[in-house]
Structures are given as C-alpha cells and as structure tokens.
Amino acid sequence: MSNLVRNPIRIVWRKELRDAIRDKRSVMAAMSYAFFGPLLMAVAFYVMISQLTDPSDVEIDITGAEHAPALVEHLNSNGIVERDKPWPAGRQPIVLAIGESWAEDIALAKPAPVTLTADFSATKQTGDLRRIERAIEGYSNQIAFIRMQMRGLDPRVVQPIELVKHDTATKGSRSAILMGSVLIFILLSVFFSGMNVAIDISAGERERNSLELLLSQPLSSHQLVLGKALAASCFAMFGGVLSVVLIPIIFRFLPLHNIGISLTLDWTMMLLIVLMLAPLALFATALQLFVSFRAKSFKEAQTYISFLLMLPMLAVFGVEFARLKNPILYYLPLTGQHQALLDIIKGDSLQWLPIFISAGVTAILSLLIIRYIGRMLASEKVVFGL
Amino acid sequence: MIEVTGLRKQFGEVVALDGLTFTAPEGQITGLLGPNGAGKTTCLRTIYGLLKADSGHALIDGIDASKQPLEARRNIGIFPDKFGLYERLTAREQVAYFAALHGLEKQAGEAAVQQALERLDMLAIADRKATGFSQGQRMKVALAQAIVHSPKHLILDEPSRGLDVMSTRILRELLRELRGQGTSILFSSHVMQEVAALCDQVVVVAKGKVAAQGTTEELCAQTGETALEEAFVKIIGTDEGIAA
Fold first, then answer.
1. pLDDT in tens, B135-160
2. Closest-approach residue (CA) in chain A for B12
3. Residues B200 and B28: beta-carbon distance below 8 Å
4. ipTM of this complex prediction, to 2 decimal places
C-alpha cells in the first residue's frame, strides 16, 4: 500500500521542532534559563568569596601605642592598624588600650595589661576581634618562649599536647559543597528549558483546536505523543547542553582558587554529563506532557507545570541539604544523575553500573509515561473533556 | 462507501445518537442536514473513530474505525468541526504535514501539496504563515489538508461556514469534481441552500435519528411541499436551529 506511513514519529518530531524553533518565546525560555541560572549563581559565589577572603586591614583605635612600639609593629604586620578615620555611624568602636606600665611589666616579667574594648556580640566584627585576639596571643607566646629559653627551659614543656590537624578535604571535595548547588542548576535546566514547548504542543494544540484533526490521522496516539515528547526533549537538551557549556566558562571568571576550590570539567566529563541529561530530558518532558495534555488551555497548563516543577526542585534540594546518603538514590531518576554529577565534581571515581541503571530506569519510566499519555488520548473523555 | 448502522451514543443523560442508519455511496454527495444539536458532529466523529459508539457501527469501505482506526483513517479526508492552524507554519507546510502523516513525503508529497493548493486557488497565500489568515483562508488550508492525500472518502463538518461567495464556489466545484472521481462525500450542514445545491442525497437528522432520507425532490414529494425548506421544517417539526 503506497499510503503506508513509514515513520510518523519522525514526521511529528520534525514538524514540532520546526514549529518550536520559530516560536521566539520558547527559544528565549530555553536560553534564558541556561544563561541566567549560572550567572546568578556566579554573582552569589563572587559575593561569598570576597567575604570569605577579605584581605583588608582591621582598623582599630589604639591608645598608648607609644608604650609598646614592638607590639604595635607586630599587630601591623598582622593587618591590624591604627585607625585614622572616624567610625561609621552605628558601628561600635574597637579600642585597644596599652597600659603605661607596659615596659616596666615586661621587664619584670609581670602580666602587662592590654584592654580590648568592643561590642563582642556584634556579628559583623566577630572576625575582626578574633584576628586581634589571635595576633596578641601570638605576640604573648613569642615573649613566653623567649623568657623560658633565657631561663634554660625548653618552651615545649608548656605545650603538652600538639594537636595535629590533618585535613583530608581535597580541592575537589571542598568544592563539592559549593558546586552541589551549581549541579542543581544543570539538572533543573532540562526541566525548565523544554517546558514552554511541552505546553505548546499539548495544551496549545487543544487551545488552538487542532487536536481533533491530528488525532484523526492515521497514526497511533502513542506515536503522536512520542514524536512530540522527542521534540520537546530536544529543546530541554538544548538548554541542558547550554548550561553545561556555560557554567565552566562563567566560573572561570571567579577567584575560586582564593578559597581553595577548583572547578575543572574537561570535555569528556562534559560529554558524560550531557549523555546523562538525555534520558532526564525525556523524563522531564514526559511528565510535563502528562500534566499539560490534561489542561484545556496554555494558562491552565502553566499553572499545573509550575507545581510540577516543585517536584524535581524539592527532590534535588532535599537530597542536597539533608545530606541524604542512601544507595537507592544512585538508581532513581533525577537523584541518580544528581549523585553521578556530584561524583564527577568531587573527582571521585565514577560508579558506572548505577549510572547505567539510573539512565535505563529514567528512560523506561519516561516511555511508560508516554505510553500512558497515548492511551489517555485514545479516550474520548480526555480528548473532548466529557 | 460509508455505512452507518444503528449508531447509538449517549453522553450522560443526553442521547446524542439514537439508532442512526444511512449510507454514503461512492461517487455521490451525501448531505447530513439537521438543526444544531441534532447529533451531526457526534455522528461524524464516530465514523472516523474519535468517539466510540455505545452500539451499532460505522464502516468505511467495510472497515470499522473503532476497531482498526489507522486502516480506516488512511482512506478518509477529514474537515473537522473545530480546526485550528499552526500559526507559525506556512499554509504549504501545514498541508505538507498532513500529507506526510498519510505517507506522502519528498517529491510525492510536494507534488500532492502543490496540486491541492492549486486546486483551492491558494498559491498566493501558500508560503505565508497562518497568522493573520482570514476565516476563508483558514478554511481553505483545512480543506487542502483534508484532500491532499486524495482520499476515497471525504467527511466534512459544516465546510462552508465563514466562506465568501468565491470560496463557496470553489468548494462546490471541488466537491463536484471529487464526486466525478468516485469519492464518497459526506458532509454535514444546517444550511438548506447548500444542501439543495450540492447533494445527491439528503439525510435529515433530528434528535439523533434519521427523520427522512432521499433526494431533494423525494423529500419535497414526501411532504407535499415544493421547497426543501418547507419540507425540512415539516420533517423535523420545528424551524429552530436551521438556516435558510
């Protein structure tokens, strides 16, 4: 039969893709998330890094500096300097007062009083105060050691315990804590980028009254839904790939090394991430089509989908912040990809079996949802809203 | 040939089709005439398998669309009750989409699309996007979609609504030409003039049942009236919901 339709899925896919690419709103939606998500992230990181590594001097009032020039010099070399500007309004002044008897007390080996006056509850100044205390303690220790050596004692007798801190955090694992939130952006990009297309090809089809004719064509509703889902997935992947490519580029401009973090993704890793996103993109669009095929209009579908978007966000943020550790997370859709991405970022060895299983589970679940939507569209109740 | 036998369909309490029986033979134009809400659209939707009848069946060349929907739909062209266009596609692309769904791709598809566009005198708008099309132009695109694969059966739901005089003439010529080629054409209408001008056979539907069946002359003779309009009012017992 010459009329035999060879591959309706491809025909539907091609038509929907062409239609969607011409829709500026869909293209913008896919791109803007991939652009602005990482950019927003980068700004937040930038602010955080500059706060963590604030190298500026602590400026305080020092009275009686003339009594102890060596101490003041020690403080200066530790970034604590005498203030020459007035304190800003609302800020409690920090005053370090060196007693007149300093030289005498030091000479007689008596404790020399140094008074630090400040509002110790002011969180903004906590870091500053700690630096001052540490600097003075350091100076105090220096003098103590010299005195003991002069008396023929090993200074180590007053240091019975030496606490050795062995930091096992690699550069990668330290960054994982921060990069976890970046990953969430990559994962969610496939949920956001294809959303507009998914609504347009389902609820939109109903809204513009083209669904009835389409369902009366010689292709099964399952083929129709699969073609549409693949088209929307392409858009989701477009956004996903864009964010995978953009995130390392944007983060190159951040002074991550200042806080001992490195984010390097080589091409093979990026390719692997993209491959892992592919079944997730299909899963995201299948879920979105499922809700928006039930909606009667674009607006209604948007409402449903915004609720639906909470699901992956809750799942990923939940795992991320509750620090859930359960092997099953490696095998489920979304959390499986999340865990694998975490391993990649941390530089841990990859667990290939869970990666393949979670990809398979994601793909199979997506196809089941698509099949269910196909069955839904064969029902006159759903199609005509009876 | 389209054969409808004892079709019954109920939506909740409402009986939309109540044992509808008629045939639309090859090479003939069969008009489904009835007031609004008589069950015309329900009947057509059941024929191409979008609705499932509670009892009875509708056969397209012996194929039941509720059992073998894809086979049945390959042989029909549909102009539905509600048709919407893809605003971002050109008229040609829309028609090509439906041609492709019927297996006409590449050269065969292009040729079929070109022929349909020419036939409906729409080459001037063929490569424009559908946004901004007039109602008449939209109807033409929908018609082109229905005939692009040269179906043996053509089912049209109120095809002349919103058409201007020129477009109506093109539609009528098209239907007569297709009839000449042996297509069985079934169309619904509540416009009397159109049915009188076109149909070889009129099926008057009221409350989901066939109220009368025959040529225009036969219906007039049955009721003893000279004009179809009077005959129609007499048959369905009211003039509600019809247009002259």
1. 888 989 999 999 999 999 999 998 88
2. A386
3. yes
4. 0.89
